[in-house]
Specification:
The complex is a heterodimer of chains A (about 110) and B (about 210).
Chain A lengths: L1 H15 L5 H23 L4 H23 L8 H26 L1
Helix pairs in contact in A: 2-3
Chain B lengths: L3 H9 L9 H31 L9 H4 L2 H26 L3 H32 L8 H34 L5 H33 L1
Classes of the chains: A mainly alpha (about 110), B mainly alpha (about 210).
């Protein structure tokens, strides 16, 4: 009977292969920490401006990568086309920002 | 032998119901293309904002205008709502409609809280500080970028609310599952855009406003 139940449990687990919430909660905690670092640095003030700007941008990029990778599953197998679409979108967005700044101010 | 409960859950729906049909898979793939286009759309708004961010005319500068606690609260609310929509999809993968609807409902409520905070913030600028769309190039770019994101939040709230109604009416099937999945992708994307907004508009505004 016990053996039966054990087999039963593993069979169900195997067929479903549901991912648990752990990974997503870790991604959430990571996002919170990155956000807190960014806000705390600005709230504290007094830090070198160039360093602060760099730190904020790194925190933002890291958080976006965590969320795209884990919550939107881009990290998972079989996401080549979605990664291409998003990378293409971000590339053109970055190009637009650089072009607009260059066009206006240089 | 499987228990009746496990059997029911597995026979009712495939493991990932959003990818069970070709139509579902195409819907998800097509939505990624749409999100790539959305990234370009927001990219142009960011480009406008970054270009005009110092053109404040007679109005206050970014660092004088913004309040960090409100932005921090809005950020936290949207981040939690992204997590609740992850839990909604996990409930969907377990075939649990009740739990799915609850997590979607919570996501909608958090979206409403975010929107209320943004409306309060804008009203404070417009009424209290007399700081409107036409005050300066900076204010136009600011209201356009942040307001456009807010409009996306509003659209997401309406979309997910309608989906909740459809889940009650039609149940969780291989037809409704891709719709739920795609709306969760949209909601995550809104949060991704907000990460850039709170960093580039608010935090950088405080540092180099």
């Amino acid at each position: 009977m016990t053996n039966h139940d054990l087999n039963d449990g593993s069979a169900v687990k195997h067929r479903h292969r549901h991912e648990g919430p752990q990974k997503h909660i870790i991604a959430f905690v990571f996002s919170i920490i990155l956000t807190l670092i960014a806000f705390a640095t600005v709230a504290a003030g007094g830090v070198n401006i160039a360093f602060t700007v760099l730190l904020l941008l790194v925190m933002a990029v890291l958080q976006v990568l965590v969320q795209l990778g884990y919550w939107m599953h881009l990290k998972d197998k079989g996401h080549m086309m979605p990664i291409l679409f998003m990378a293409g979108g971000f590339f053109v967005a970055g190009l637009a920002i650089i072009a607009a700044l260059y066009w206006m101010w240089w | 032998m499987t228990t009746p409960h496990a059997q029911q859950a597995s026979s009712a729906l495939p493991h990932e119901p959003e990818k069970a049909t070709l139509e579902g898979r195409n819907k998800v793939l097509g939505f990624w293309l749409f999100l790539g286009g959305e990234a370009v759309l927001f990219g142009t708004l960011f480009a406008t904002f970054l270009t005009l961010r110092n053109q404040v005319a007679d109005g206050p500068s970014a660092s004088e205008l913004f309040s960090l606690p409100i932005t921090a609260a809005a950020t936290f609310i949207l981040l939690v709502s992204s997590l609740t929509s992850v839990f909604a999809i996990q409930a969907m993968h377990r075939g649990n409609r009740t739990s799915l609807v609850r997590w979607l409902g919570l996501t909608v409520l958090l979206g409403l809280a975010f929107l209320a905070l943004e409306i309060y913030e804008f009203a404070e600028y417009i009424i209290h500080d007399d700081y409107g769309m036409t005050t300066s190039a900076f204010s136009s770019a600011f209201y356009t970028l942040v307001g456009f994101h807010g409009a996306h939040v509003l659209f997401g709230i309406l979309w997910i609310s309608i989906l909740i109604g459809q889940l009650f009416k039609k149940g969780l099937t291989v037809v409704t599952a891709p719709k739920v999945y795609v709306s969760a992708m949209y909601w995550h994307f809104i949060d991704v855009v907000w990460v850039f907004i709170f960093t580039v508009v608010y935090l950088l505004g405080k540092v180099v406003g």
